[in-house]
Design brief:
The complex is a heterodimer of chains A (about 270) and B (about 450). In chain A, helix 1 crosses helix 8 and helix 4 runs parallel beside helix 7. In chain A, about 45% of the residues lie in helices and about 15% in strands. Chain A is built from ten helices and seven strands. The N and C termini of chain A lie far apart (about 45 Å). With about 450 residues, chain B is α+β, with helices and mostly antiparallel strands. The radius of gyration of chain B is 21 Å and the shape is globular. At the A-B interface, helix 2 of A face strand 5 and helix 1 of B.
Chain lengths: ~270, ~450
């Protein structure tokens, strides 16, 4: 199994841990983010630790006009791209709700940018998308029809892992702009999963709870905080399991189940 | 950058102080603050070197990327937050080893430079700083500067052993040492008393690249111990390949031991057993590098053995001229105090290096782990300081939690030279720690 995985937003702690976990099982990587200086450091580190091929390149989620060229350059570097991890996100701050300038960026990064790059990825993995990015060595037609069929299926099999958030499961006054953008991303991934099912492409929605990263460092009121390493390892492990929506750590599924089922007349009174 | 106010300590769990922690994940976020700041890697210094009471502590644990490794030349460049354990995983399979290593691999690369750590091979290979090719240092004004023995040498030798007080160590280049095997060829020599032990350590016919002596501080005979000599096994001596023989599974101490768990009886019993078992290994034997260099790393959180109040590691060096007398006096003082030391280690040190605040000097270094039961311990340690001073020795700052400013001044004669460099680069003394304030290092000194 030779994997080639694109990681979007590769400089976050969760993305770095996920990249490490992929590299540990031999995957080649393409790391993308706005911060190319950090990318250079992370790419060198992963290459030295795991001996895998690591590419990196500039990717700006909010600059959707650049996504087409970006994705082509990824395919030029890794023609056998087999998976994509969408790991970027922008939390903004409390002001996002009151100042739409910040709110617009939260939406542009977490949802619009995600939807844009995911459309390129989906088209690539889907059979129709193959026409746009033809395989360099198309299999011969004729006798080996069975072979060809299997080959095609292998080529088309891929995965898209989208890192959304438990914040997208219910709107709360403390971060509903971020929550709305992530909730929209979760819905988008759900639709994409439905569309790509027939093509054999896995689409996994990951919803992390509290993870010990720069985003949460020093915040009061956190509990059961998971390490980025454990989250990264479980994201990769999710490929070997059947769940479509993965809460990390697992107990967040039940926490969010309860939160989603609080009746709105009660929920609106809560300070969350 | 978000911060977290937390009570933290060094490895000895004494003192415990409230500090404001920040934990950058990007290299560009390694930046000084307007107010007091000290960098902290893995927090493995024992006392207050990586504490800053009511001040800022910069954690480098996430700025830990390996940047370059030349397996032909044996050079490595990495961010300072990386641990020696992580480096070993990459370099040992390619035939290289750390040029100098302390007794734990769970320390940061930057910490090894800041404390100019030494290993069992100091008498042959010098200290960590002697193998550093270059450092990228982030100064008090936020600028980045490269220093090495050739480029900005003054700043380099103020930073090597400078306890993080000249700036934030961002990147380190290191010259590695070649090995033919991941194994060590080790030989033990038992000594019935201190005189014999010194005899063994001075005997060139048994000396090896790495030499260390374990002392039974509870023994009936003062200074009973075992000299342990070893070298990286050659191809002929070891099984082929760089397979690692060490036990992979480590165990953790699950909770604080009660204060009485380590007492004269339990330590005495352990020491007798250890002396008999290890002293019997007269023939050379192969050992993995992990059990040889890092025996205590197999026991995670072993500092909990000493109970909630923690412990002090007292490490000093006595110059060659009166090393035997000095070490004998120290052990006698310890023995008379009836305080058990779970660990007592004696090593030979080679010539003093160029690091202005570096610990090593030609002589013998003794390290003792002493649990804090009562304040009487500090009176004992003051008496040990006096003995060390009488013999012209010094105490190791990376282990220290209680030395006086006056004793520090007497022990580190090159401090004035260091202070000139410090004042020129950091006039407001932004890089300061609980240790630097306690010892009067830096700041508005006349």
């Amino acid at each position: 199994m030779s994997e080639a995985v694109l990681i979007l937003g590769a400089t976050s702690a969760i993305a770095r841990a996920t990249a490490n976990a992929f590299a540990a099982r031999g995957a080649a990587l393409y790391l993308a983010s706005r911060d190319t200086e950090e990318l250079r450091r992370i790419a060198a580190d992963i290459h030295l630790r795991y001996g895998v091929e690591v590419h990196h390149g500039l990717f700006d989620a909010e600059a959707t006009g650049t996504h087409d060229a970006f994705f082509k350059s990824v395919l030029a570097a890794m023609p056998k791209l087999s998976g994509v991890v969408l790991a970027f996100g922008y939390l903004g701050d409390q002001q996002a709700a009151r100042d739409f300038k910040i709110g617009a960026r939260v939406i542009a990064s977490n949802f619009t940018g995600a939807a844009s790059i995911l459309s390129h990825c989906a088209n690539y993995f889907e059979p129709d998308g193959q026409a746009r990015f033809p395989h360099p060595n198309p299999p011969p037609k004729g006798e080996g029809a069975n072979e060809t069929l299997r080959d095609l299926r292998v080529k088309r099999r891929g995965f898209i892992i989208g890192i959304s958030s438990v914040a997208g499961d219910r709107g709360r006054q403390s971060n509903y702009v971020y929550g709305a953008a992530k909730g929209a991303l979760s819905l988008y991934l759900q639709g994409l999963r439905n569309r790509l099912y027939a093509s054999g492409v896995r689409v996994i929605t990951v919803k992390p709870g509290f993870v010990d990263t720069a985003m949460t460092y020093g915040l009061p009121g956190l509990f059961l905080v998971a390490s980025p390493q454990s989250v990264g390892e479980r994201i990769v492990a999710a490929l070997g399991k059947s769940a479509d929506v993965v809460y990390l750590p697992w107990f967040w599924r039940y926490i969010m189940l309860i939160i989603r089922h609080i009746p709105e007349p009660v929920f609106k009174r809560l300070k969350l | 950058m978000p911060t977290l106010i937390s009570s933290i300590s060094g490895w000895g769990r004494y003192p415990v102080q409230s500090c404001e922690l920040e934990r950058p994940e990007r290299y560009a976020d390694l930046r000084p603050t307007e107010t007091s700041l000290i960098t902290r890697g893995q927090g493995r210094s024992y006392g207050d070197a990586a504490l800053n009471e009511n001040g800022r502590v910069l954690l480098t644990e996430r700025v830990n990327r390996l940047l370059e490794f030349d397996a032909e030349q044996g050079t490595l460049r990495a961010e300072a937050g990386v641990t020696l354990a992580e480096i070993l995983e990459v370099i040992v399979p390619r035939g290289w080893f750390l040029p100098v290593t302390p007794g734990t691999k769970f320390v940061s690369l930057g910490g090894c430079v800041a404390a100019d750590v030494h290993g069992k091979n100091h008498h042959h290979d010098g200290s960590f700083g002697d193998h550093v090719l270059g450092i990228e240092l982030i100064l008090a004004d936020g600028s980045r500067v490269t220093c090495s023995p050739l480029e900005n040498p003054q700043l380099f030798w103020a930073t090597v052993g400078g306890m993080g007080l000249t700036g934030i160590i961002g990147e380190v280049g290191l010259k590695l040492t070649p090995i033919q095997s991941a194994h060590m060829m080790v030989r033990h020599h038992a000594a019935a008393n201190l005189e014999q032990l010194f005899g063994l350590m001075q005997d060139a016919s048994i000396d090896d690249r790495y030499t260390v002596a374990w002392i039974d501080s509870m023994g009936a005979q003062l200074g009973r111990g075992i000299a342990m000599c070893g070298h990286h096994a050659t191809q002929q001596e070891s099984p082929p390949g760089f397979q690692h023989k060490g036990k992979k599974n480590s165990r953790a101490i699950p909770c604080d031991f009660p204060a009485w768990a380590l007492n004269s009886l339990s330590i005495g019993a352990f020491n007798s057993l250890y002396y008999r078992r290890e002293g019997a290994k007269r023939e050379p034997f192969l050992s993995g590098y992990d059990p040889y260099f890092y025996p205590l790393d197999a026991l995670e959180k072993w500092n909990r053995l000493y109970g909630k109040r923690g412990f002090v590691q007292y490490q000093c060096v006595i110059p060659d001229a009166s090393a035997y007398d000095g070490i004998r006096q120290l052990l006698q003082e310890l023995s008379a105090s009836r305080r058990p030391s779970f660990l007592a280690v004696l090593k030979r040190l080679g010539a003093q290096g160029r690091g202005l605040l570096s610990f090593p000097m030609a002589g013998y270094t003794l390290a003792l782990d002493l649990p804090i039961r009562d304040d009487g311990l500090f009176a004992l340690l003051n008496r040990l300081d006096e003995i060390v001073l009488q013999h012209g020795g010094r105490v190791y700052l990376a282990k220290d939690a209680r030395l006086s400013a006056e004793s520090f001044g007497a022990m580190y004669p090159r401090y004035a030279e260091w202070l000139k460099i410090k004042n020129a680069l950091d006039p407001q003394n932004r890089f300061s720690s609980s240790l630097s304030r306690r010892l009067g290092i830096g700041g508005s000194d006349e």
